[in-house]
Amino acid sequence: MNARLPLVALALLVGCGPAAEQVVTGLRSDNPAVREDMAEFARKFDEPVVVDALIDTLHDPSSSIRLVAVESLGELGHAAATADLVDVMANDASAEVRAAAVEALGRIQDPAAVAPLMIILESHPPEQAPLNIIWALGNIGDKRSLPLLSSLRESTEDPYVIYNVNVALRKIR
C-alpha cells in the first residue's frame, strides 16, 4: 500500500471543505501524519468541538503533533484551553512545546495564566529570565504582574531582559 495514500485522502478532504466533525475525526486518526495535518488545519475552525479535540491532542505521544496543536489553540484564542496549556507549559517533555504553550497563553490573553507564568518567571535568576514569559505577561496585560516585572527590571543588567520588561510594562500600563 502506498504510504502517501492517507495524505492524498486528507488532501481530498481538505479540498472539499471538511466539516468540524471531520477535523475531529482526523485528530483522532491512527495515522500520525493525518493527526498532525488536521491539528494544523483545525485552526480554521473556531468551534468548541474542534477546540476540545485540540485540547485532547495535547496528550498525543508525538511532540510534533502536540506542538501543532498548541500553535492552533493559540491562534484560535479560546480561554477554554488555558488550564491545559498551563499544564503543557509546566510539564511537557519537549522544550519547544513548552515554549509554544507560553506563546499560546500570551495570544489567548486569559488572566488565569498570569499566576502560573509569574511562578515560572520567579523561578529563574534575573539574568536568565525567559523572554517569552515576559512577552506573554505583557501581552496579557494584567496589572498583577507589574511588581514582579518592575523588580526584575531593577535586579538585572541584561539589556535583553530590561528591554523586554520595558515593552511589557508599557503594554500593561
Q: How would a textbook summarize the main sheet? A: none
Count of the separate structural domains: 2
Taking pLDDT < 50 over at least 5 consecutive residues as the criterion, the unreliable ranges are none
CATH architecture of the largest domain: Alpha Horseshoe
What Rg do the Cα atoms give?
18 Å
Number of helices: 11
What amount of the residues lies in strands? Answer: under 5%
Q: According to CATH, what is the class of the largest domain?
A: Mainly Alpha
Describe the protein's architecture and organization:
This protein starts with a helix and ends with a helix. It has 173 residues and is an all-alpha fold. The chain is 69% helix and 0% strand. It has helices at 5-15, 20-27, 32-41, 48-57, 63-76, 82-91, 95-108, 114-122, 131-140, 146-154, 159-172. α7 (95-108) runs parallel beside α9.
